[in-house]
Design brief:
Length: 407
């Protein structure tokens, strides 16, 4: 199977379009994006119920698809005898594992099929093919920034991105060195992926990301008409980044816990990669979102220009840092080159690019040292050493490019 394909490309295409549309229904810095993910999920399940369904927790999954982590041949043989079909088999070269996508037998619901698969392989890891959504919104367009910032020295920095496609023709990214994965070699730019990429490595006259000059390894988990946001795509993207030995990876996607994703995340962490993820915008009382809430992942919240945590940002032990996530510019796709962005999606890349300055290859010791160094520089936002709102504190405020003043 080619990179960027799923076991069911048609289902993935509809899922991607629904997810993207649900995330952009309400935009603008004045809108309250709290619970926007819940609205997007509801929209997915309503509009695309022929290809999307809810798991027992109400989370969106690709209908009649299940995933298995490195199943033995005997298990696959037993599954086929039970009526399961093998829709795809991905060798995760960078992680040393295999991910198999299975179609559920007609006589079972997807939930029943998962239970049957677990009974066939009680010692294995199996789960639904969950869908993950972006964790931020683009807002009012702006032609330029209020001021240019002093970019950090990049050197031979490499940073990874798992998101939508990146528009390398954008003025902030034309000078960038970008390696791509996914979509069978096609470039399918997205507003979200382009905005996040610009915050990582953007470089233009009056706009700079945190690490201009760094090499970006961009994995497109949406691909427009291809599988978008499904967990099997995200895992294969992570495996590619592991294979390329990219030390720091930003993931601005959020969703439910998933055994396959957890296995992939833990495999990367054990190899010394740093994974930085947005904690989500479902509000302080919402359940934890993933991958930010997996142990070892660096969860990032967002702060406004007054250095207050966004009211819609998640709280909890998964928050390790806060960074600018509101009242700032990022690259836009459309007639105006830049737009105002809001959400933890846009805070995470600031932290990722800062950590990438200290990492040249995956390394457990170097990773711990980089995180400790950043924590020591963080502006504390509570009386304790660490808080559920901001973690170790606020970092990266110097990299915020504020929107120009308006009449």
């Amino acid at each position: 199977m080619q990179p960027g394909n799923s076991g069911n490309a048609a289902n993935g295409a509809k899922a991607a379009n629904a997810a993207n549309r649900g995330e952009t229904d309400e935009t603008g810095e004045g809108a309250n994006p709290q619970q926007s993910r819940a609205r997007a999920v509801k929209n997915l399940l309503r509009v695309y119920r022929d290809v999307i369904e809810a798991d027992p927790r109400g989370e969106p999954v690709l209908r009649r698809q299940l995933l298995a982590w490195s199943p033995p041949a005997a298990v696959l043989e037993a599954a086929r005898a039970e009526g399961f079909s093998v829709l795809g088999k991905r060798v995760l070269g960078g992680l040393g594992e295999t991910l198999v996508t299975l179609g559920a037998p007609e006589r079972y619901s997807t939930e029943e099929a998962l239970a049957r698969l677990q009974a066939l392989d009680p010692g294995g890891s199996h789960d639904f093919n969950h869908l993950y959504l972006s964790s931020g919104q683009s807002g009012k367009p702006s032609a330029t920034g209020q001021r240019a910032i002093r970019p950090a020295a990049a050197g031979p920095v490499r940073v990874g991105l798992v998101d939508g496609g990146v528009d390398s023709t954008h003025q902030a990214l034309q000078k960038a060195a970008i390696r791509r994965w996914g979509c069978n070699g096609r470039v399918v730019p997205s507003a979200h992926g382009t905005a996040v990429a610009s915050l990582l490595i953007g470089n233009a006259d009056r706009f700079h990301g945190v690490s201009p000059g760094a090499r970006l390894y961009a994995a497109d988990a949406y691909c427009g008409s291809e599988t978008g946001g499904a967990v099997d795509q995200i895992i294969e993207a992570l495996a590619w980044l592991a294979r390329e030995q990219v030390p720091v990876v930003n993931v601005s996607l959020v969703g439910p816990p998933n055994q396959m994703l957890e296995r992939a995340v833990q495999a990367m962490l054990k190899r010394g990669h740093l994974l930085i993820a947005a904690v989500g915008n479902d509000g302080p009382a919402a359940p934890p979102l993933y991958p930010a809430s997996y142990p070892g992942v660096i969860g990032v919240s967002g702060a406004d220009a007054q250095r207050r945590i966004l009211p819609e940002a998640a709280r909890g032990p998964q928050v390790m840092f806060a960074a600018p996530g509101s009242q700032m510019l990022a690259a836009a796709v459309g007639p105006q080159p830049y737009g105002v962005v809001r959400g933890t999606s846009f805070a995470a890349p600031i932290v990722a690019a800062m950590l990438a300055q200290s990492m040249r290859k995956p390394d457990l010791v170097a990773g711990r040292a980089a995180v400790a160094k950043l924590a020591a520089r963080a502006q504390r936002m509570s009386s304790g050493e660490r808080s559920p709102e901001a973690g170790y504190g606020l970092v990266g405020e110097a990299f915020r490019i504020a929107p120009e003043a308006r009449p």
